[in-house]
Request: fold
Amino acid sequence: MVKDGLPEEETLIRMLDRKRLPVHLAVIMDGNGRWAEKRGLPRAAGHRAGAENLREVVRFCAELGIKYVTAYAFSTENWKRPRAEVDQLMALLVEYLYKELDEMDRQGVCLRAIGSPNELPPDARQALAAALECTRGNSRIIVNLALNYGGRRELVEAIRRLGAEIKAGRLEPGEIDEDTVQSYLYTAGIPDPDLLIRPAGEYRLSNFMLWQLAYTEFLMTPVLWPDFGRAHLAQALLEFQRRERRYGGLNV
Ligand code: IPE
Ligand code: IPE
Ligand code: MG
Reply:
């Protein structure tokens, strides 16, 4: 059966090679506002639908055995939005962190935050701290929520900390290599994303994971994030499995 022009979800899932799934999937959760506008709803309804979709995507990834999911939820640039929308986004974050906590825990989700979440409003910081603490012992799937995240900001913070180490005499500039830099990023110890999905028909990174995406496969799709369901994800994973990753070499 074909739904939305896609073969049935189960057919797509059966076609997947379970041994060649991405270890780390990154998603830019974009298009919530347009999803709502298309339905004559307030933008906040789109953000809610987007949050619901993240829950479904994480559940699906956990079922498939994908080890890491990183989701861009709020950028360092998103503070430029009207105050009312920022407030709604923060309120939604608090609501979902509390509401989904038990379910995340049951599913074996280990929640982590990347970015500068210490600059979020106090209730969001509190909800986040509780969720991180409650899920820290889980290991089935690691979910990084990028909150007040900026790729340039991440590099600036890493450089500052490296500079402080040098100044304190604990590090020589010549000792710094790519592994050193990696270990100073928010994603220290986590492999780089294998696949990045950018929905909503945009063709840019919007300051997301500038270092980590060096050799990531990109998948841009016009589908809006709240509509990007299991079938779309299965199709994206199939497309990923058709790609040939060469890392600058020759696959001969
Ligand atoms: C993404 O959806 C959510 C955030 C950036 C927080 P948008 O709100 O950017 O949705 P569009 O791009 O306006 O459709
Ligand atoms: C990227 O979406 C950030 C998040 C999804 C959190 P934006 O909607 O902020 O990106 P731009 O402004 O279109 O580049
Ligand atoms: Mg957007």
Remarks:
- The CA atoms of residues 93 and 221 lie 25 Å apart.
- The beta strands are 2-3, 6-7, 24-28, 68-75, 109-115, 141-149, 195-198, 217-220.
